[in-house]
Amino acid sequence: xxxxxxxxxxxxxxxxxxxxxxxxxxxxxxxxxxxxxxxxxxxxxxxxxxxxxxxxxxxxxxxxxxxxxxxxxxxxxxxxxxxxxxxxxxxxxxxxxxxxxxxxxxxxxxxxxxxxxxxxxxxxxxxxxxxxxxxxxxxxxxxxxxxxxxxxxxxxxxxxxxxxxxxxxxxxxxxxxxxxxxxxxxxxxxxxxxxxxxxxxxxxxxxxxxxxxxxxxxxxxx
Amino acid sequence: xxxxxxxxxxxxxxxxxxxxxxxxxxxxxxxxxxxxxxxxxxxxxxxxxxxxxxxxxxxxxxxxxxxxxxxxxxxxxxxxxxxxxxxxxxxxxxxxxxxxxxxxxxxxxxxxxxxxxxxxxxxxxxxxxxxxxxxxxxxxxxxxxxxxxxxxxxxxxxxxxxxxxxxxxxxxxxxxxxxxxxxxxxxxxxxxxxxxxxxxxxxxxxxxxxxxxxxxxxxxxxxxxxxxxxxxxxxxxxxxxxxxxxxxxxxxxxxxxxxxxxxxxxxxxxxxxxxxxxxxxxxxxxxxxxxxxxxxxxxxxxxxxxxxxxxxxxxxxxxxxxxxxxxxxxxxxxxxxxxxx
Lengths: 222, 341
Prior knowledge:
The structure holds two protein chains of two kinds. Chain A is mainly α. Chain A has nine helices and no strands. Chain A has helices at residues 7-45, 55-68, 73-79, 81-87, 93-118, 122-130, 135-166, 177-186, 191-220. The longest helix of chain A is centred in the first third of the chain and has 39 residues, at 7-45. In chain B, helix 3 packs across helix 4 (118-131), helix 3 packs parallel to helix 5 (147-159) and helix 4 (118-131) packs across helix 5. Chain B is an alpha/beta fold. In chain B, strand 7 (165-169), helix 6 and strand 8 form a beta-alpha-beta unit. Chain B has twelve helices and 14 strands. Chain B has helices at residues 48-55, 78-86, 103-114, 118-131, 147-159, 177-194, 205-211, 229-234, 239-246, 255-264, 281-289, 321-332; strands at 4-13, 22-32, 37-41, 63-68, 71-72, 88-91, 165-169, 197-202, 214-219, 222-228, 268-275, 293-305, 308-319, 337-340. Chain B has two domains: 2-245, P-loop containing nucleotide triphosphate hydrolases (Rossmann fold, 3-Layer(aba) Sandwich), CATH 3.40.50.300; 255-340, Alpha-Beta Plaits. Chain B starts with a strand and ends with a strand. In chain B, the strands form three sheets. Chain B has a six-stranded mixed β-sheet, sandwiched between helices. The interface between A and B is medium-sized, with 21 and 36 residues.
């Protein structure tokens, strides 16, 4: 194997790319996380027997989420490019990639949120209703706290998925470790550079997963 | 004025996907006076859980009138209902505690909802924890509590806003017999010391006997029998009531038991029914002794219901036919008797 590598000259780029990945994923996780939480809550509360039961709203939401969620991300980026130009003013680069990632993440997260909320015992919601709590209060003070452990694990899972998805950012001129690995590793036949990026990604994922697990365990070990 | 008044109440659940509409409650009239403990018994599906949820409007009433403390609640809006619910506590079979909150946090929740100032919340939660005997478990999470402790937290939470009415939905069905007795004792204190009216839903007649003043029997969405616990236990009218009463009171031996008894005991079998303090057993046995008969107690028992006693005793009377006949006649004017075939 040819270990002729440019890695030594690329370190500044490595750190720059690591920073970009973290920056893209973090913003996406916050924005997409919030959007996904709202969408997931909406899916959950409109279910049959839910706090805001509505067959129509639930059906519409389901079709909406199911329409966007299965689109492969590399195609999704291209498809929402016109929308990105309108919303964030540009169709390429990190801002455009954050926009596309946020949307895609929101749809995925909404299902994760919905699934976790379904596991909350309906009895505790009934108990909260029986003491006269309003529906928004129940969502805020019972539903989300009761599902917090699984939600943290769900968001941790999403973080890892976002790191994966962000690797494709290069197709519209976005940065990050994925793009770096493709551009300076794969295309230059520089296996060492590729693997450097890979190892950094693996390390990142490990740290985040460990943090998520610890947090979730602390919340669940009541 | 009655604390709770239901008039011709119906609840129909609409059909779900190809299923049929379910008439869970069909024309129920029910009056509960302040300070009472009323037990509602019935098998699963009798509509009792639905009925209790109409009282605090967790379910909406299809038709009929539900008055709580004189206020018609079936026409209230959600916002107004929340106010009504603050005055009605509820406890559940599965306790339904918030697992993300400590015992303290669970009890404080209704106070937060009611907007009680922190300082007052603190005092109230502390008082309630002492009342239910869990002062040392204030900072335990539900996972760290036993079933009985969880239900006591549930009771404290239900009492937090000082309701006048407490609804208990199968509140002891998930507990072992000993813990059940603890929880029932606590509920009796809630009624006696705090003067809180209690409506208990149960399928356990034992709970009714040891707790309730009055019992309402439900079957297929209707009230089929109601009355003082002693009256219903001693003279159940409907088949369903008799089945329930039979679970705790030995009324008379069934055919199979009777046949087995007959093989061991000679003579005529007579069931004597005792009720209240009207007749002393000693008097009845004294009369039997005046005759030249031998008698044995072969079946039955005497029950205690809140200071009253009642029960059915089946005796095997043996001796000369004329003497037995005379003995039976002699006690007939003291207690209701029934000759078993």
